[in-house]
Amino acid sequence: MERLVAAVLAAGVLQVLLATADDHYLLSRIAFGPCANQNAPQPIWDAINKFDPQVFIWLGDNIYGDIRRPFNFLVKERTIGPWKNAPRFIPSSSSEMLSRYNSAKNVPGYLRLRAKAKVVGTWDDHDYGLNDAGKELSAKTTNQRLLLDFLDEPQDSPRRKQDGVYTSYTFGPPGKQVKIVLLDTRYHRDPLSSDGSVLGDSQWSWLGKELRGPPSAITIIGSSIQVISNLSGTTGPLFYMESWGRFPKERDCLFKLINDSKRDGVFFISGDVHFGEITRYDCAAGYPLYDITSSGLTQAVEKVLPSPLRFIVRFLAWFTPSTMRVKNQNCRYRSCTYGEPNFGAIQIDWDASPVNLKIQVRDINGLPVTGVDISLSELQAWNRTIKAGQDQRHCTLEVKLPWIVRYRLAILVYSVLALLLLALVGLICAVTLACRVCLRKRKTD
């Protein structure tokens, strides 16, 4: 208990010191991650602590605060299927949310991280209060206070007085500054099917000022949902994931704002989807825009299946077309996605000429599973160095693919289901025929 108290006190002192030292604190190691179920084991903190980040960024689903009901399709309240008549997720009370935050805050590995690194963050849907929720959630004001308490946000912080948890931080001396911009993709977001607003008017105005403000060598934009990738364009109608691609007008506005601001060194980090990947879009600004997705610290798509069957997830990830995904020799699997627990790691070599960025998704042991090395000179609006072949590769949006390519996952799944159904019908017919033959033989006997 004494060690726990000491760690918490040390974390509080460190947060105050770093908050006052942002202007000259040279930042070279950043870790980030989302999707940490407070009730699940969290051994990944050992790898994060070994990486020794100076700043850790929460990207949402920092807890799972809503209540997930089981799949039911034969009872009065059915939560799955075309006959669904009840929601699968429901909000929990504020006291239960607080309890879950307290559990998350006192995970030993996370306590060790808080004692030596500055922790910042935003939220996604499950810590916002409800799966896939947007501006319609009535508890968002209360839940905003709970998140900011979890992040040890000062009581006089502007974040406690505004609608939404968006914010920014700047680290480092002039010429070597890193700006971290954290978006709120929940508080003002319109319904998923609306193609309305993701950020809302006030946040858009704020973001414009941030990007047009004083320059920084590097600008990291943190979004809880993916910005570049739009896998929903190729996984539908089987299932749909949240992303900026579900709001194409808003995403175009975001890209235009970055392009018009002439800001150098911009890239995205994101979470939400329960796997890691790196995507890239070459036709939005004067240089390639990267989106490094890490998800999640405990939640991962491969964990839904037993170990011997996880190759199925990897095959489907490879088979699903993705025009924006970066595929190179740094990938552990052919799909260049990673469906087990992971975190994001950013290393900045300020002594290199030009400055070099090593950005990776790392596994539970701290080993890289996919990554990119980027020269900061490549992320300059005035120095477009992309080759024509690369332009074409990372400029075709998923929704613009030929239909047979775009829907090949659905075609595969439906074909397999049809074959299984035919096989089942054939088996039933064979058994029925065999039974009839046996009955006839008995009567003959």
TrEMBL record:
Q: What is this protein called?
A: PhoD-like phosphatase metallophosphatase domain-containing protein
UniProt entry keywords in alphabetical sequence: Membrane, Signal, Transmembrane, Transmembrane helix
Q: Which InterPro entries match?
A: Metallo-depent_PP-like, PhoD-like_MPP, PhoD-like_sf
Q: Which residues form the PhoD-like phosphatase metallophosphatase domain?
A: 43-283
Q: Which residues form the signal peptide?
A: 1-21
- Gene3D superfamilies recorded: PhoD-like phosphatase
Cross-referenced Pfam families: PhoD
Q: Where are the transmembrane segments?
A: 411-439
Q: From which source organism is this entry? A: Gossypium tomentosum (Hawaiian cotton)
